[in-house]
Amino acid sequence: MSTQRGNVSRSRAQKHQNGTVYKNDKYDSSSRTKKINTKPHDGVCQHCKDVLEWRVKFSKYKPLSQPKKCVKCLQKTVKDAYHIICKPCALQHELCAKCGKKEEVVLPIGKLPEASNSPCTTNNQENSSCDEEEEEEAGSDLDFDIDLEASDDEVKEEKKRSKRPSKNKAATGS
What we know:
- Helix content is about 35%, strand content about 0%.
- It is mainly alpha-helical.
- It has a domain at about 30-95.
- The radius of gyration is 25 Å and the shape is flat.
- InterPro entries: DUF2039.
- It holds the Pfam family DUF2039.
């Protein structure tokens, strides 16, 4: 396509096209990438949310190493990358935390999407690990030996007692 001014229409189709979708965690499966992929973008307008999701999708998102200064309260309280307003100020003034405009916030601060009950529905996790988590949750629901009037210290001691015999049996059985 020519770079001449005014020449904006193309007469042919795209010459090369990708066969597969880009995956930002294909070769980089570090904990940093996993945290970035699971981070919710709350307190921002729809446009800013789309921009942040694009940055995450194509490995352009770089988290902050130190808090930035908020443009409203002038304190170093901005902990999210690409944001200019801290969460309390954005909530108080009803502004987008990224662009600072008074637009409708898509996902309110502090509220996570409740579309699914299971955290295993994301594409980044394997099905086998989800099955194990569901079994653990089901096993924890069947614990009827809870003393509601026991103090925290008593509960901690009881947990220590219940863990000790299982370790000793495993050590003597080997």
